Amino acid sequence: MPAFDTAMLVLAAIALLAATVNGALGYGFSSLTVPLALVFYTNRVLNPAIVLVEVVLNWYVLLTNLGGVRSVWRRVIPILVGMLPGIGIGALVLTSLEPGWIKLATYAMILPLILVQAAGWRRPISFGWTVGFPFGTGLGLLYSVTTISGPPLAILFNNQGLVKHEFRAGLALVRVVESSVTALVYYRLGLFIHDSANVLLALIPGVVIGIPLGAYLIRRMPSETFRRICMSFDAWVVGFGFSRVLIELNLMASPQAYIVMATAILIDVYLLYVFFTRPRSASAAAQMSGERFH
């Protein structure tokens, strides 16, 4: 681990960037913060601080999008019910596995989800119990181990044809439950430790500044373009973290391990090229201007 002051300064900068994205899109704080911060900290130290921040952020997003809750709350019930056992299982995994392997699992699960989302994958997905309950269980497991759930949630909600306030309300409703329940489970398992409190103090200033900054920026550029740029940054960061942890666990040597990062970058560059060069239909233009949130 680097010197304390250096780590705190870097983490504060990461939090500012991630909070700006969250303020603009309604999600993205943990999926940007965690891959970068795992370079300096383990999940056991980082997760409790991230979860406490996300409890506040998610309640803020939900309260500012209450108008869309009526349209989506029934749809997300299967996800919320399925999430509860997943959170419990994931928290136990967090307390029992070696930190390096948890890092590896975090990167391995998140990178494909980011690239699928970046590819603009679209297919109607039902919110029914058949899909929603197992999806919720997997989501709860993923979140309690990594504090990341934005990419799979975005893939699911992007394929529902929801308007912007419905998208944000549904996303916030799920995330309020997952972060609040996870915080309670972490507390019961004694995961809130002194080092996590130091991390929390480093996160707070960035969150306070970044949330309103993101809300301001998103009004001045197409939400889809902003989201796509953020995903590219995320994919590159996760690729770097993936390569680093392969070296730490002696699974691959340097520089061969950085083939993972290079592959992620090449795939994302291609997807960026497709995104910025494909023709825009009239409906897509409407979506890009913010009438729909994808």
Structure commentary:
- The structure is a single chain.
- By secondary structure, this protein is an all-alpha fold.
- It has one domain.
- It has twelve helices and no strands.
- α4 packs across α6 and α5 runs antiparallel to α10.
- It is globular, with a radius of gyration of 18 Å.
Helix content: over 70%
- Global Rg: 18 Å
Strand residue content: under 5%
Terminal-residue CA separation? 38 Å
The shape, in one word, is globular
Extract low-pLDDT stretches.
282-294
Beta strand count: 0
> Mean pLDDT, nearest integer?
84
List key phrases describing it.
single chain, mainly alpha, disordered C terminus
Summarize the structure.
With 294 residues, the protein is mostly helical.
